[in-house]
Design goal:
By secondary structure, the protein is of the alpha/beta class. About 45% of the residues lie in helices and about 20% in strands. It is built from nine helices and seven strands, in the order αβαβαβαβαβααβαβα. Strand 1, helix 2 and strand 2 form a beta-alpha-beta unit. The radius of gyration is 16 Å and the shape is globular. The model has no long low-confidence stretch (mean pLDDT about 90).
């Protein structure tokens, strides 16, 4: 939703994001939009990786001709191969988790990437009807005292009234953002 995505991108603009990872791309719109926006607002993102278990979206064929710093892998974030990639690369400044929305998979994505990134973003944190398990993961992490010493937490959850009415009052989307405190201080 534009009322969420625009605030999310404006929020990210205050940081210099160089390596970027997105888990779960579907058609790739958020990946390309985020990458292009950050590259124009700050300096170019030096390395961007999108992973998903589906075939590379057709849109990417043309985009990768334009942006030589962007890559796609057909890969499960739940796999040992994904973990090996994280261990082999320098840490990411930003990881967006928007893949499998089950509780187990979403929590595992978090557990896997948390040591390899400075900003962790969950999409669909208020998706009360379609993907309540992401909201559950977000709440548990947010309420865990272990993370309060290490991260600042932010939420972008604006809703369109007409959309909520079409979905029987249910909320949709939302971004939950965790920024490591030491990264936040160094990147301002």
């Amino acid at each position: 939703y534009p009322n969420q995505l625009n605030k999310y991108l404006i929020f990210l603009a205050k940081y210099k994001i160089e390596p970027y990872l997105e888990i779960g791309l579907e058609r790739g719109g958020t990946f390309i939009t985020t990458l292009e926006y950050l590259s124009r607002i700050n300096s170019p993102v030096k390395f961007a990786l999108g992973i998903d278990i589906i075939e590379k979206p057709v849109l990417f064929n043309e985009y990768f001709k334009i942006n030589k710093n962007a890559y796609y892998l057909k890969l499960s974030s739940q796999s040992a191969e994904f973990r090996e990639i994280l261990e082999a690369k320098p840490a990411f400044d930003l990881v967006l988790i928007d893949g499998d929305h089950s509780y187990q998979a979403c929590m595992k994505d978090f557990e896997t990437v948390k040591e390899f990134t400075s900003i962790i973003v969950f999409h669909d944190i208020v998706c009360s009807y379609y993907c309540p398990q992401v909201a559950r993961v977000w709440q548990e992490i947010k309420e865990n005292p272990e993370y309060h010493y290490k991260y600042n937490f932010y939420e972008i959850t604006d809703q369109y009234q007409e959309t909520m009415e079409r979905h029987a009052g249910n909320t949709l989307g939302g971004f939950g953002i965790m920024v490591k405190r030491d990264f936040e201080k160094s990147k301002y």
